[in-house]
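Reply to dn_fold:

You asked what the input looked like. This is it:
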Amino acid sequence: MLNSIFSKSTQRVYYPGSYEPLINYLQGKRGDGQDEKNGLFSTIMEVMAFAACVGLKTNKKADVTDRKDINVSIFEGNGYGPLLFFIPLASREEADFYLLRNGEGEETCIKDFQSYAAGGFYILSEKWKVAGLVTPDVFVEEVIRSLTVPSHVINDMDASGFTNSVPSTPETAGISDPDDIF
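and this is what came back:
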């Protein structure tokens, strides 16, 4: 068995229990917990990792209220342990690797990860309210698109995801020299 990357394997990672309907939706579970076979994520850890990435991308942190928890050893055993460090380190202007040298730094990283996940859950829940009845994969694709594609391009997209306007000349496409295309 591999050595733990955590100084205490009893540490807990908390997430807001109030977002369980969203978590169930992304896992393809009905309200009664039964599987609908259309989930995009298999585990709460995967949903939480996605939420933390959304929180990081939008720089949204939130307090974890109505707490539910997962043991860090479960994160680690499923290959998600390093995310508890990478997300918080990526959020800093300068990576502070001294955080990784002691239990206090681990706790700081875990708290930051939890805060980004809670912020991401908030963003996801707001987007879910307006998404309508779509499958989890379509919802996540729309979330990713909204976070990565400039808003002026999204405004020009039709329902299929393609832009409504096609530049007719290289100049309108922002290309001053057609040879720059290749």
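Confidence is low (pLDDT under 50) at residues 159-170.
Hope that clears it up.
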